[in-house]
Amino acid sequence: MVASSLSNFHHAYNCLIFIFLSTFFLPSEAAVKNYQFDIQVTNVSRLCHAKPIVTVNGMYPGPTIYAREGDRVVINVTNHAKYNMSIHWHGLKQYRNGWADGPAYVTQCPIQTGTSYVYDFNVTGQRGTLWWHAHISWLRATVYGAIVIMPKEGTSYPFPQPHLEENLILGEWWNTDVETLVKQGNQLGLPPNMSDAHTINGKPGPLFPCLEKHTYAMEVEQGKTYLLRIINAALNDELFFGIAGHSMTVVEIDAVYVKPFATSSILIAPGQTTNVLVRADQPPSRYFMATRTFMDVPIPVDNKTATAIFQYKGVPNTIIPSLPQLPAPNDTSYALSYNRKLRSLNTPQFPAKVPLKVDRKLFFTIGLGANPCPTCVNGTRFTASLNNITFVMPKTALLQAHYFNMSGVFKTDFPDKPPKPFNYTGAPLTANLRTVQSTMPRLSKIAFNSTVELVLQDTNLLSVESHPFHLHGYNFFVVGTGVGNFDPIKDPAKFNLVDPPERNTVGVPTGGWTAIRFRADNPGVWFMHCHLELHTGWGLKIAFVVEDGPGPEYSVLPPPKDLPQC
Questions:
Q1: Which of 61, 211, 330, 562 is deepest in the core (most CB within 10 A)?
Q2: Sequence-distant (≥ 6) Cβ neighbours of residue 558 within 8 angstroms
């Protein structure tokens, strides 16, 4: 099931990682970390199916970016594949430097075949686990990897130092070409086929065919503690994750420390990261790490379980691992309870700077719909909207249009609230409520340094569903969440303004709402979208134009010379 050389491999691997990470804790100045990303097609086999996939440097998942808080990171991306490419450094704030953020046609034109672009950015005020991924079409199905930011020199973790650290990236695998599936789905007006498997570090595990080469394992020693950096890189699935027989202590989410708490399973939405401590305190054996979809409405999903192995040193590979007891796939109460436990550390060293006064209140409804499509299978095409507006992607990058004052590229008239209030989470609604699809993107303009409160409200247009929303360029505080319709009179009184979780991606609960707050101190054009790739493609997205502040030090930086052109 797992190669017999597992023990020797992991001993050598762990020694290298220990030496590598130890260098971060030696006295040093802020450094420049240089990386070369070659976008190339590589043949990969999973589930007894071989196919060419788009990769970085031939790796699936791609290489890990290592840096320290305060470092400068320079990544030259050269595109050798047939698809246009852009890379997003998910969760990095990119202060004044949207040119390095990555979403195609939002902050940059894509990197065309045979060309290169340098992402040059500083890691300021952040430490922990983030990740990077393609941000064009569905290419992030295989183009993704981890970002590990170590604390500043002389600064330790606010929790016990682990013996070793491990990256665990949860993903999805399709036996057929993903871009072809998406193209076919768009032509038919239907969602693409769901994935054939989930993966852990690119491998589905022994519950699937052709398991011998495709099971990930990490070796542990009795009595030692490990830090697992868990990333949900899946395209369309929120996931539960657990380890058989072992408790996990959650210590960080989205590269922000939290008040530690123990749990048997975590819930992690696409785009989110979670760091947990695990102590190898069980009888030496082999234990499955497992992940499976959370979906609490009757919508088809890939409900198969991916596994990896948590293997004690010296235990033979012939021992059959045990499976963890994950929550039921539709366990809404567990999901809500888990998210309520997430609280910012809020210490003098790591304060929670929650905006207490709000300058701008926004209320966005999330809607799914079906528009007429004479050439589609059912005569309709699925669509999605915020405040009944389906986002239209431009042909010119929005940040370039904003910086160079180009006209006719976008409008800044996105409404602060839906045009027509209704019973958002009442009986299922099949009408689109006059969903608008304009000829150009409609953006929301935000004054520099203003404080914003945004309530994201799920609706029962076609169906309620949980939606993970990611805001580029910012972290935000999740001050409140609830089931049903948001009550602007009663619900704010229940907001947590002391130690709410600070994130870059948050799940809006099924048939419910989530309230976030942030200070708009990062000028530029910043994307916000559902991190379910299916819904993003249907138009469930928007961009904010945050105005420049007073003076050049509070304004968008000049663009790099090699900025791609559309």
A1: 61
A2: none
Cα atoms in the 13 Å half-sphere on the side-chain side of 349: 10
Q: Are 495 and 467 in contact (CB under 8 A)?
A: no
Give the β-pairing of 306-312 and 217-220: parallel
Which of these, 499, 494, 537, 497, lies nearest to 513 by C-alpha position? 494
What DSSP character marks residue 320?
A: P
32-46 and 49-56 strand pairing: antiparallel
Q: Which residues pair with 88 in a beta bridge?
A: 133
Could you tell me the fold of the domain covering 30-157?
Answer: Immunoglobulin-like (2.60.40)
Q: Tens digit of pLDDT for each residue in 399-448?
A: 999 999 999 999 999 999 998 899 999 877 655 555 666 789 999 999 99
Closest CA to 464 of 484, 482, 450, 447: 484
Quickly count: other Cβ atoms within 10 Å of residue 112's Cβ.
15
What is 159-344's CATH topology?
Immunoglobulin-like (2.60.40)
Cis preceding-peptide flag for 492 (omega within 30 of 0): no
**Is 360-554 a CATH 1.20.1260.10 domain?**
no
Q: Is the pTM of this model over 0.90?
A: yes
Strand pairing report for 476-483 and 502-503: antiparallel
